[in-house]
Amino acid sequence: MWRHTLTLTRLQTPAFSYCFSDFPWPPDMSEVFPQHDQVVDYLAAYARCHGVRECVQFGCKVLAAEYAGVLDE
């Protein structure tokens, strides 16, 4: 979605609220509401760092999804 958006699009929530807990925004990111290309770069960096792309099969139809984590009791 972020790759196919208008150039002037910005994140609508503050950057500190839109980040993975184990992957903060880069220290040089000073925008409160990052531009779309900054969001794309951030998400791509996360995917590279954590090997996400190797776990995704593109061009396939998703028939079902299930939560695989530990259930809260």
From TrEMBL:
E.C. number: 1.-.-.-
Co-factor(s): FAD
- Enzyme class comes to oxidoreductase
**Pfam families for this protein:** FMO-like (PF00743)
UniProt keyword Flavoprotein, yes or no: yes
Q: Which GO terms describe its molecular function?
A: flavin adenine dinucleotide binding; N,N-dimethylaniline monooxygenase activity; NADP binding
Q: Which family does it belong to?
A: Belongs to the FMO family.
- What's this protein's name? Flavin-containing monooxygenase
